[in-house]
Amino acid sequence: MELDFRKLYVTKLFNFSKEDEKLIFEIHDRLSEKFTVSVVEIKDSLYPQFKSSDINFLQEPKLCYHIMDNNMTNIFYILFVNTIGTTAKGTRTTDEYDTLEVWGLKKMNEDFGFISINKKKMADKIAGIFNRFNINFKESKDFKDFYVLGSDPYKTMAFLNPHRKNAVKSITDGDFKLEVKNDIVGLSIPKALSLENALMISKFLQEI
Q1: DSSP string across 104-161
Q2: What's the pTM?
Q3: Residue 136: which pLDDT band, with cuts at 50, 70 and 90?
Q4: Considering only CA atoms, which of 62, 16, 17, 18 is closest in space to residue 40?
Q5: Are the beta carbons of 159 and 115 closer than 8 angstroms?
């Protein structure tokens, strides 16, 4: 990575730990091998359109990468998000962030309504918990390991074409959270920031 990049965004990195800062630059370097990567303001990303009207003060994006392929046709965003831990009473555990996570957002060419997709846990499979999910893939062997909730079954099935099903199944972290809000797809890995998670999210957003 060029030194100019570090100088240009040093003020955006002041509240990250040295370990996280190193990871952020490493992720930039790896993504830059395949894409054009630039830092943009959070307000200029898809996040303001995607976030809920109920602001979660325990999760706050701090840095955003704008990712574009060489053909300038595939664009998505990688966000680095501070997640503050709480006690059982709901108070903050520290004055600093507890975990830095990575999220990804991409704008689609079609409105799919609201969709939520999660991978089933072993306990869920044993208990057969799937009643509250209105798109049931129990009998569909190619997607039976996932819970799918959609506001419009037809739009949900249109989103989950064979290509996107394979992209979802390729997400190796079983704790992922995938949400579609109209024409924006969001994917997060609710775990501490890692290069592997960032590359996993970027691969998924590139493929869909």
Answers
A1: EEEE-SS---EEEEEEPPHHHHHHT--TT-SB--TT-TTTTTEEEEESSHHHHHHHS-
A2: 0.83
A3: low
A4: 62
A5: yes
